[in-house]
Every structure is written in structure tokens, then in C-alpha cells.
Amino acid sequence: MDLLEELARIYAERPDWVTGYISLRDARFLLSRALEGDGDLLVELGTASGMSTVALAYALRSGRLVTYDIDTHFYADRTKRVGDAARVMLSSEQLAGIEFRNPASALNLREDCGPDTIPFLFIDANHKHPWPTLDLLAVLPCLKVGAEVVMHDINLPEISPDFQTWGAKRLFDDLVAEKRLDEAAAIPNIGSVVIPPDKAAFRAQLVGILHRHPWETDAPEGLVEQLG
Predict the structure, then answer these.
(1) Residue 13 belongs to some domain of the structure
(2) The whole model's pTM is what?
């Protein structure tokens, strides 16, 4: 059984309390992209129940997965810790390669990782603009040139009209970079960008996106200045 088939099998065994999770289709795209990398270090922003953590765990070989969330407990069931689905669904050997960092944010990630050290990042946290852009701005110094950044819910407002949060879509659509999508999907809801050699120019794009669109929520006072 290959890894994509194994992921489908274990997805069917998810706990009943899991909700709001990444779809199997999107999880397969995430796993396939992670498998293309060296597998040495995978980083996730937005653990929630831990279903995407499960998908990423199948890409681990000898490396590690560090997953960050601003909360300590699952937003839809406060009796569950952030990442508890992964703790239930994965083997002890798989869990040994995972570090759960919570409560923690992209700024903590920036403190934890040195410059140009991260080859793979998955962003699936706050989808309201400007947060996806702020998250990527915060982490950019730590990303290697050529790193792949996978983003979820890049077409959420089109797929789910009840969820009109545009941050991930604005970021993905506006970036001029090498991109990958689930081409077989009628409306892809997951995609990735590759960090180019000119990180300064890429950063300038992010700053432009940050200010180009109306903010859907606030950011802490001084955060934008802190990110330079």
C-alpha cells in the first residue's frame, strides 16, 4: 500500500469529534508536495485538530515535523487538546518525530528557527486578511530559497459561501511566483508557492498585498512595525 492509499485508510478512521478538517483530497495534495522535499524539516502553522499534521507525518523520513498553533485546545471541542487527532491516529514511532508548539505563533517560529533553515511550510491558520500575509512575512527570513509554501483555503469564499474570509485567496492570487495547484479539482482549495532567489523582492510583494486589500480583522498594535 502506498502512502496516499494509507492516508485514505487512516482518514476513514478519524475520531468522531473532528470537524473543520482538511479534506482528504487536499490532504493528499499536501502529502504529495511534502514528499517532493527532502523530508528533513516540515513546519506547520495552524494545528487545530491535527488532521493536516497526520498527512504531513506520512512524509517524514528521518526528519521532524514542528506544528504551531496559537491555542492549547481545539476550537470546536475544548475538551480536546490541539493536535489530539494526530495523537490518536498516528503510531508512537510517527509521533516521536512531531513537536507540538502551542500556544505559539509565527513570531515564535521565527525565534525558533534560524535564517534560511526551513525547506517546507504549510500555512492553515487564521484565514482573514491580513493574517496569512503576516504569517508568511514573519516566517520568510527562516525559509530557504526554493522552499515550498503550501497554503490551504485559497478559494474558500468560492467553495464555502458561508465563509467569506479572503486572506488566503488574496495572498495566493496576488503573489507572482512559481505555483502549484491541484489541477484536477474543479476549484482548487490548496496550492503552493516556491520561494524565489530574490527574497527581498518577494518580501516587497508581501508588503504590497498586506496594504492592497481591506483588512478583515485587526492585528496587534506594533506587529507590522515589528516585522519591519
Answers:
(1) no
(2) 0.96
